Amino acid sequence: MQNLPALITLLIYSAILFGVGLWAAQRAKSQEDFLLGGRNLGPWVAGLAYAASSSSAWVLLGFSGFVFAAGPSALWMVPGIIAGYAAVWLWAGGVLQSASRDEGQLTLTEFMTQHAHPGSARLIRIVASILIAICFSFYVAGQFQGAGTAINDLFETGFVPGVVIGALIILAYVFLGGFLAVSLTDTIQGLLMAFVAVLLPALAFFEAGGLSGLSQAMTEAPEAYGSVFGARAGWAAAGFVLGLTATGFGALGQPHLVAWIMATRDTSARVKGAIVAMSWAALVFAGMAVLGLSGRAILGGDAAPESVFFTLAEDLLPPIFAGIVAAATLSAIMSTVDSQLLVAGGAVSHDLGLGRAFGGREVLVSRLAIVAVCIAAVLLTLFAPSSIFKRILFAWVALGAAFGPIVVARTLGFKPRGRTVLAGMVTGFGLAVAYEVGWIGAGPGGIWTTIAPWLGAFAAMGLAMVTRKTRAASELRVGESK
Question: Which of 66, 236, 378, 435 lies 20 to 30 angstroms, CA to CA, from 312?
């Protein structure tokens, strides 16, 4: 049988995940348990689970492939990613954690509606839920694409069966155990990914000939590859760096990442969790950068970028160990989907109120919504071809621009109300889509691709706030004249 060690490892690992789901299902009695695990996570679980949720297929396959294809210029993304982690945990985290506890909020959408009137709050919930469903379909599709590619590479199943198998495995334990199952499994995935991010890049680095080998490979590559600015100069170079670095701040608007902040048990756990998450990010991104550059030296420039990780694992590791590492890494790729599916379920059941509409069956409705989003992502994966990196980058930028400016405003002490929140959400998301489809330019690292949606959202929110105050002042003068 093709790659029997990998198959055995994957089956055992999947059985463990399913067992965690069954165990956690016994403890997911309420909507708070299912969506936030009872708000009792410690720093190691919260930090590692956050890191695994934010970075999996797009880091192991997508980012390593980006570095393989673009060279050192791709590394400008890393400081922005780590700074984004710090902004979520240490800057906005205090407001998110306290507000969610004091107001009983279970989702980022509830946080955004805190100061809105009931009618406006309902509209915000509807719009936010639609945006989450759209973006997470792309996000999850990117992960399923990575799973399908990996399973096909390992077992020669074909891409379509690989996607379906990956989807079924991840769906099983998320459907059963909710946030507690996600927390435990993602903690395991985070540790596993850190191990792989040290082992495989180290082997690839020495195989490539060390620093001299990497230097020679960059010398032989096109001039743009070896440049830290991708052959850009002046304002173009500054814009490239700013645009690529700004990608990391999309973390402020990711509902599935904010959930980990809301779920930490206290301030101490949140601060320590930040250290865990940021240390993990530095290790894993550095490892994948080394892997991408080493892969260029070993494989040349003709290899498929998003297959470099598994190609090097197969070439550099003993057959049995290579299969085990590949299968375990595949599990890490699939498990990143879990928190995204969970948030999508919460958006439908809790934010839209469908759980209450069906006789208080919020957990059941959340599970059914998870299945629906999972099916949509599978269909998107199969019938709308794209790269893993591009799918996930779009979802990241769009969600960040739709929700991030509102989180920033709240952290700065503002209290945006209904129309202000709606204006920011719709403008930020709309501009992100406009750049994605190429109406006004596109491409990772383009200064306006990541920054313009945020600037547009802030401008729209400011205009809405000024308009509201002007209208209120006008109504007050009319009332006094009477």
Answer: 378
